[in-house]
């Protein structure tokens, strides 16, 4: 039987898109405490089923699929710009296709305004009205208001009119940044992208015996299976090693490994690779928010995904990408191994190279050195960093690495950083090795 938490989540998921919900309403309708209702609504927000907006409340929104993640809902825009909704609240769940900045004459501006757009403009009432009539939402900057006619039209068409105290340039920058951040997220391969779904997953139940494991093994050729209960919740994992020498009527529950490590759809594949290497695991069950089995992921799937990630072009550039792109390998006759220029993005508010960038430089040096001995990626376990002297903007950092120890799964590297011949930093890096 489903728990109260699961019942609330199911109730929320079945609500109409755009419908407003509250803790008190759910507590009353489902006969649960307000604390239970509050926790379930927060979980629904984490799952992307609802969005909470200041001065508006919590509304049911359409859960976005990953392919559409770079598009924002109007509800998300309200949160990004700390906005106030003046009208059209029932349309907050809708997704905007693009935004248009209204900084030109009316006739010229309207050529660019289409249905599904968000027009960013000041206190120009006529523009607000025309944009709504074209099917576009309106974001009013500078803290300005609009008139009653525009608000009535927004409510009628279910197109949000939002007001923010920020200026137009700042608002455009904030929305661009939000879209850019989501583009970066889109590139990260998650378990949900590569898992073997439940309909193609082989599993055993706690009522099965070792004889059933033997039958499954002969049928599928696999030796590892998740073990579930009557509610599809994962209770254990069973492998060939667990059933070796056991009587065929021995219950699986007696030989399985209880409380196994599990992951969910939103776990990154890189994180799964780290778990599998560290724990020596070949297969991981994938569960949903209710702890129920929805599929499995194997080490082979993870390695293939990591290989594909290396070959894909990147849309959003992270700070790590900026640092590694500027890395240059020096000639053999140089006393240093690598060189990197300190760009403005790599500095802190004082104009000095940031601590995080130095850590990235050390990691990149260690990774390149280890790849000379063994192909693969590294997962950093520990960095001991001695920050000796600050390095300012537009300086050049030379790096020298020394491989202290390398094993089948681990490596230890000493890295020294120099600027104009003087040592400015020193680090000891310990890392796990992930095969490609």
From TrEMBL:
Pfam families: 4HBT, CBS, DRTGG. PROSITE patterns: CBS. SUPFAM superfamilies: CBS-domain pair, HprK N-terminal domain-like, Thioesterase/thiol ester dehydrase-isomerase, Winged helix' DNA-binding domain. Residues 195-254, 256-318 form the CBS domain. It comes from the Bacteria. InterPro entries: CBS_dom (IPR000644), CBS_dom_sf (IPR046342), Diverse_CBS-Domain (IPR051257), DRTGG (IPR010766), HotDog_dom_sf (IPR029069), Ser_kin/Pase_Hpr-like_N_sf (IPR028979), Thioestr_dom (IPR006683), WH-like_DNA-bd_sf (IPR036388). Keywords: CBS domain. Gene3D superfamilies: CBS-domain, Hotdog Thioesterase, HprK N-terminal domain-like, Winged helix-like DNA-binding domain superfamily/Winged helix DNA-binding domain. Signal peptide: none annotated. CDD domains: CBS_pair_DRTGG_assoc, hot_dog. This is DRTGG domain-containing protein.
């Amino acid at each position: 039987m489903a728990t109260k938490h699961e019942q609330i989540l199911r109730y929320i998921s079945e609500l109409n898109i755009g419908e407003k919900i509250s803790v008190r309403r759910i507590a009353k309708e489902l006969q649960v405490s307000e604390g239970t209702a509050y926790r379930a609504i927060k979980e629904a927000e984490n799952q992307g089923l609802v969005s909470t907006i200041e001065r508006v409340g919590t509304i049911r929104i359409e859960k976005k699929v990953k392919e559409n993640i770079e598009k924002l809902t109007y509800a998300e825009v309200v949160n990004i710009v700390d906005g106030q909704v003046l009208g059209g609240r029932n349309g907050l769940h809708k997704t905007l296709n693009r935004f248009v900045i209204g900084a030109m004459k009316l006739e010229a501006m309207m050529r660019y305004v289409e249905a599904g757009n968000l027009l960013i403009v000041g206190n120009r009432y006529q523009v607000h009205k025309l944009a709504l009539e074209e099917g576009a939402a309106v974001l009013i900057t500078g803290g300005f208001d609009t008139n009653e006619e525009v608000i009535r039209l927004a409510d009628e068409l279910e197109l949000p009119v939002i007001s923010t105290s920020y200026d137009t340039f700042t608002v455009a920058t904030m929305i661009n940044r939000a879209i850019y951040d989501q583009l970066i997220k889109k590139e990260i391969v998650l378990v949900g992208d590569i898992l073997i779904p439940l309909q193609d997953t082989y599993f055993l139940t706690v009522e099965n015996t070792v004889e059933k494991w033997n039958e499954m093994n002969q049928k599928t050729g696999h030796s590892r299976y998740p073990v579930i209960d009557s509610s599809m919740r994962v209770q254990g994992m069973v492998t060939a090693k667990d059933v070796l020498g056991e009587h065929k009527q021995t219950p699986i529950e007696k030989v399985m490994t209880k409380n196994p490590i599990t992951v969910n759809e939103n776990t990154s594949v890189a994180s799964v690779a780290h778990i599998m290497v560290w724990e020596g695991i070949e297969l991981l069950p994938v569960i949903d928010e209710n702890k129920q089995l929805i599929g499995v992921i194997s080490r082979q799937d993870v390695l293939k995904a990591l290989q594909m990630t290396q070959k894909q072009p990147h849309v959003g550039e992270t700070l790590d990408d900026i640092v590694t792109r500027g890395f240059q390998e020096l000639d053999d006759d140089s006393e240093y191994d690598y060189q990197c220029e300190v760009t403005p993005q790599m500095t802190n508010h004082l104009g000095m190279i940031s601590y995080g960038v130095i850590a990235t430089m050390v990691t990149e040096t260690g990774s390149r050195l280890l790849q000379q001995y063994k192909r693969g990626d590294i997962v950093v376990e520990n960095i001991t960093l001695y920050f000796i002297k600050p390095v300012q903007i537009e300086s050049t950092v030379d790096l020298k690495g020394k491989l202290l120890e390398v094993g089948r799964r681990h490596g230890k590297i000493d890295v020294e950083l120099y600027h104009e011949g003087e040592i400015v930093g020193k680090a000891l890096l310990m890392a796990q090795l992930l095969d490609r």
